[in-house]
Amino acid sequence: MFLLLVDPSDSLIVAVKPKALSGLDIDDDEEDLKFQLPQSTSWWKKKLYSFLLNRLKLPDILLMAIFSLSLKAWILVILWFILAHVTHKWDLGPIYILGTGFCTIFLNLGRRQPGDVSAYSIFNEDFRELPGTLNADAIDRDIRTGQF
Known about the structure:
The protein is about 50% helix and about 0% strand. It is mainly alpha-helical. Keywords: Membrane, Transmembrane, Transmembrane helix.
């Protein structure tokens, strides 16, 4: 038994260590959460993964980032860094960064299929709104008809 003298102005922080749950194999759950390559992965990716995991001891989150990108995406990333170095030498770095931002925005706008409508009515034919859109006209119409 411990005798603890505590003043009213003192703070006491207590942490309790939980007991391990019996009958549950926690290692299996952790193994499921680790990054794993699909079975259909090529042999060179499997060798690279093995090297990065076993020899270099890279964390799973980094391995996930490395193997989630396609070869085309990696080429674009490397090309972007090479061009960034060139533009830095020519003192055009800020323009390069802004240009990259604008290109990223415009290339990711997407294309609408025929018959698709935009969520913004100004982009639709006859300014047609999506069903269920709540705006000032709908509220005014509901108040005047007594439905609000």
